[in-house]
Amino acid sequence: MFNTSVTMDRPQRWDSPFDHNMTDAQVELLLQRPEFNLIDKSRFPSSISLEGILKNDCRINRYKPGDIIVRDGDYGNSAFLLLKGKVTVVTRPGLPLEILGRTRKKKKSFWQQISQIWKNSPYPEARNISRYFDKTQIMNGLNTNSSILNTKYSNLIFNELPKNIDSIESVPKLKEVYETVTLGSGAIFGEIAALSRVSRTATIFAQTESQVLEIRWQGLREIRKYDDRWKKIIDDNFRNNLLKDTLLENKLFKGFDEKIIEKISKYSLFETYGTFEWHHSFNKSNDNETSEKDRIVQEGHYTDGVILIAGGFGRVSKKIGNGERTLTYLRVGDYFGLDELYTTWKTGHEIPLETSLTTLGYLHTIRVPAHILEQYIFPDLKIKSSRLSDIAERSLAEDTLLEWAVGHRYINGTQTMLINLDKCVRCDDCVRACSDAHNGNPRFIREGYVHGAQMVANSCMHCIDPVCMIGCPTGAIHRNHDDGAVVINDDTCIGCSTCANSCPYKNIKMVQIRDDNGRVLLSSNNNQPIMKATKCDLCQDQMGGPACVRACPHDALERVDFHNYVHWES
Fold it and tell me: Against a cut of 0.85, is the pTM above it?
């Protein structure tokens, strides 16, 4: 009889530290700083000690004057503590897109679009490489900090600068054109975006030689949890910024006076569930719901407040036999538990929750207590019937598309390519149209997961939670400022594959690029082929939008937001 099992240590949280080079000596120096030496270390559990957080969840970065630390519009999962030096926060009107490593594509004229048919290159992924020669450090991947002083656009805001400078704080034109704030040693920034999975709202660059402690969100969460001083700083910043904005934008509180919103925010509680890194486990298996389900509230229990969704996705479900049936899913702007609280207030009888709420990956919530609702919401609220009761009347057969979309996390997409296989005749006109619009290179594959007659094609979905954007060192992958599409700036992409590896749906491809003559471009650094990330860009430069949709002769292809496509809302 063969022994078919082996033993191993259970994987631990810190098996993969943020920086393998972080030393005990550096940790000791950090512990002596005022931000950490006042923390009561005994409040941390032995398995998550403060020393362990600094050793495994932090890294020390060094920046030269002009290096971008945080880029407006980026998504990130870490916060920053300025250890040494000064940094500049550029708020309004915001730096030009070119400086941030981005681009705004112009629409092609009618004749330019027509000429694409015969002007496209016969070679795959051919580029006009003349524009690259200004950016050899980007082409070779030598500069991942994306210094704003080392681009050809620098003089637009900094005038001519001396070659060897220690500081750019005295450059006059910067403060004339832009609204800026200077931060010094001890400043904390980036924590709201790190904990809330929202885009950065300003660009921050090193004003002098600077040393910055980067704290990944897991470590920041633990420090906030076990130290009241850090919790107050983070919660105050959150309350003064994101929490109030979230309340103002939620349909329950639309039109409320800002002073009332201020009062409501003081009593509201920000909570987070699940894991930001949901896409890593999702990449390994689509059976993600059994491993990632994180129940927030349970059907049959009672709630003390309404739950507003501030980020991520939540599944609303109801027991059926030994399992659960998905009734709907919630995303930013939705809320949970209002019907039961309202009925309790109106009748005087405490009503239990009709459904359960669990996370799909991660979920940020704002819990507004019942006494606030009773004071400001319920007196003017009119609910004719329970929305979820209406939904529950659907047949189980009607829910199969919803369950499929939730299971494969297609609910994340805002422009998912859905093909009706009953209408599709496999003519590939959609692929050819995409190819014509992208210099002979199609940006999607006409294959994917199928449910009944519906297939989700292998094409970028332009997600609500764009995990592909996290960690891009140059800001090449970003949201378009005009329509929110997720696009890649080919000029500033360094081929690091971070976005392609992060995409849960495998919709970003890394390709070898060539010049106009079909010659493969090699890096002068190591003689290896230069790679670029490519994907669907919703035909940003094409009149009329996505060429694939316009080309389909049978209306079999459409771009959908599953939240609107699957008709489960009453």
Answer: no
Q: Give, as one character, the DSSP assignment of residue 167.
A: B
Q: Give the integer Cα–Cα distance in Å for 205 and 121.
A: 40
Give yes or no on whether 229-393 and 406-565 have one common fold: no
Long-range residue pairs from 334-338, CB within 8 A, at least 24 positions apart, any chain: 334/308, 334/309, 335/250, 335/252, 335/306, 335/307, 335/308, 335/309, 336/297, 336/306, 336/307, 336/309, 337/297, 337/303, 337/305, 337/306, 337/307, 338/252, 338/306, 338/373, 338/383
Is 420 in a helix, a strand, or coil?
A: strand
**Residues of the chain below pLDDT 70:** 1-13, 92-94, 96-99, 101-104, 110, 118, 131-177, 283-293, 383-398, 566-570
Buried b (16+ CB within 10 A) or exposed e, 90-102: beeebbebbbbbb
14-48 confidence digits (pLDDT tens): 777 888 899 999 999 999 999 999 999 999 998 89
Give the Cα separation of 37 and 35 in Å (integer).
6
The interaxial angle of helices 429-437 and 110-119, nearest 10 deg, is: 110
Class of domain 406-565: alpha beta
First to last CA, the chain: 60
Helix (H, G, I), strand (E, B) or coil at 291: helix
Out of 2.60.120.10, 1.10.730.10, 3.20.20.20, 3.10.180.10, the CATH code matching 229-393 is 2.60.120.10
Furthest-apart CA atoms within the chain: distance in Å = 80
Q: What residues does each domain of the chain span?
A: 13-95+178-226, 229-393, 406-565
